[in-house]
Amino acid sequence: MKHSLLCYTALFSMTTSLYAFSASCPDILNGKQRLLNSNEVIELCEEFQGKTLLIVNTASQCGFTPQFEQLEQLHQTYKSEGFTVIGFPSNDFRQDRGSEEQSAKICYLDYGVTFPMMARTTLSGPEANPVFSKIQQQAGVKPKWNFYKFLINKEGKVVATFPSSTSPTSTTLKNAIEQQL
C-alpha cells in the first residue's frame, strides 16, 4: 500500500510538472519539427524555451544564400548567452529547388552551418508551418523574400523583424539581439 501511494504521488508529480511545462510553453514553440534531411524530430519547446531566437526562412539558391556564413557567425557569437538561430528552408520563392539533401549540403558543407535547420517548409497559406503562422499573427508580417529574419524574445514573442537585405552581422541586428539577452 505504501509503495502504491509513493508511485501514485510520483506519477501525479510528473504529470503535473509536464502539464505546467506544456502550459508555459509559448505558442510559437508548441509543436514538433523535423530536422533538415533527417528523420529526427525535435520538440521545439524542449529545445528552445527560454532562449532568444532568430528565425530565418532560408533558400539554398538565392542571392542572399551567402548570409548563411554570417548567420553562423551570429550563432557562434551569442549561443553561450542563450541565443539560437533557427533556419527554415522554403521554396515559396522558388529558390530552394531540388532535394532536401542538396539543401543540406549547401547549408552544412558549403557554409558550415551548425545552428538547427528544419525540414523544408511552406511559409504562408493553409499549409503554412505553424511557427510562421504564429509569427504572422504576432508581427503582422510575413516573409517578403528569402532570409527574412524574425527576432523572438525569451517569452516567445516576436520583438523585431528584419528584411532580407539586413545583414545578420549588422549593428542594428546585433544590438536588437543584445537587448534581448
From TrEMBL:
It comes from the Bacteria. It holds the Pfam family GSHPx. The keyword Hydrolase does not apply. Residues 1-22 form the signal peptide. It comes from Vibrio agarivorans. Belongs to the glutathione peroxidase family. InterPro entries: Glutathione_peroxidase, GPX_AS, Thioredoxin-like_sf, Thioredoxin_domain. Keywords: Oxidoreductase, Peroxidase, Signal. GO terms for molecular function: peroxidase activity. Residues 12-181 form the Thioredoxin domain. This is Glutathione peroxidase.
